[in-house]
């Protein structure tokens, strides 16, 4: 699976959040591009484009964000630009476990990857409780939305077996600190004209949030067939 567009967007969002800019529009205008260009990058409108947002536009945006195009593409050094190289900004189970261990389970440890994740409250009474869905989270991409209300509602439309698997997985992670498992999803979304059908790997980590409450950071990725 080609994850380069997601790595690029994740790094773009991270550098934007660290910058002086308060809106994507202001970044676009400061970079001498159309007012909506940075917003389109953030929304993934160039993910499958054969021409992309334009290298000169990206160079100007990088200068304003204080980074380089290589930073956005996830290249740690010029020699790491080979197709098989591991890119900075791309999560794996191993990286997330490392984040969990090194931060002693604090949300700050996951900061590089939160755009890929969802955050839940404690699962209980056979229900899960979504709080945040990152732009690059699998569920957000599958449904083309980060709307918490919509995504939460989809859980109750899953078949009973899928609901049980998701709930049990979250409950186990909450009780044990973290958990990893594979789940098959075959879920229609007629209101969006599509169906979510794939095997996916889910890693969940019980985490101390910034306000010292507890939450569950969940990352999912499609298992290639």
In short:
With 225 residues, the chain is α+β, with helices and mostly antiparallel strands. It has helices at 4-18, 24-30, 37-42, 55-65, 69-73, 93-102, 138-143, 148-155, 160-176; strands at 117-124, 127-133, 178-189, 194-208, 214-222. 38% of the residues lie in helices and 23% in strands.
What key attributes describe this structure?
alpha+beta; 9 helices
How would you portray this structure in words?
The protein has a 5-stranded antiparallel β-sheet. It is globular, with a radius of gyration of 18 Å. A hairpin with a 4-residue loop joins strand 3 and strand 4 (194-208). The protein starts with a helix and ends with a strand. The longest helix is centred in the last third of the chain and has 17 residues, at 160-176. The mean pLDDT is 89. It has helices spanning 4-18, 24-30, 37-42, 55-65, 69-73, 93-102, 138-143, 148-155, 160-176, and strands spanning 117-124, 127-133, 178-189, 194-208, 214-222. It is built from 9 helices and 5 strands, in the order ααααααββαααβββ. It is α+β, with helices and mostly antiparallel strands.
SSE layout and pairings?
Elements: H1 4-18, H2 24-30, H3 37-42, H4 55-65, H5 69-73, H6 93-102, E1 117-124, E2 127-133, H7 138-143, H8 148-155, H9 160-176, E3 178-189, E4 194-208, E5 214-222
Antiparallel strand pairs: 1-2, 1-5, 3-4, 4-5
Shape: globular
Radius of gyration: 18 Å
Count all strands and give the number.
5
Biggest sheet record: 5 strands, antiparallel
The amount of helix comes to: 25-40%
């Amino acid at each position: 699976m080609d994850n380069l567009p997601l790595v690029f967007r994740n790094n773009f969002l991270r550098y934007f959040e660290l910058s002086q800019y308060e809106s994507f529009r202001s970044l676009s205008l400061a970079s001498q591009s159309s007012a909506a260009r940075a917003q389109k990058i953030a929304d993934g409108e160039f993910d499958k484009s054969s021409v992309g947002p334009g290298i000169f536009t990206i160079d100007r945006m990088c200068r304003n964000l204080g980074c380089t195009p290589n930073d956005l593409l996830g290249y740690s050094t010029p020699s790491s630009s080979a197709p098989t190289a591991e890119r900075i900004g791309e999560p794996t189970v191993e990286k997330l476990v490392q984040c969990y261990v090194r931060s002693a389970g604090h949300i700050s440890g996951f900061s590089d990857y939160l755009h890929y994740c969802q955050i839940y409250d404690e699962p209980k009474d056979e229900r899960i409780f979504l709080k945040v869905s990152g732009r690059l989270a699998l569920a957000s991409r599958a449904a083309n939305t980060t709307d918490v209300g919509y995504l939460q509602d989809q859980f109750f439309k899953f078949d009973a077996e899928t609901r049980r698997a998701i709930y049990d997985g979250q409950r186990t992670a909450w009780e044990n600190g973290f958990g990893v498992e594979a789940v098959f999803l075959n879920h229609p979304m007629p209101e969006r004209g599509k169906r979510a059908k794939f095997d996916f790997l889910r890693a969940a980590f019980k985490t101390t949030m910034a306000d010292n409450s507890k939450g569950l950071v969940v990352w999912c990725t499609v298992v290639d067939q």
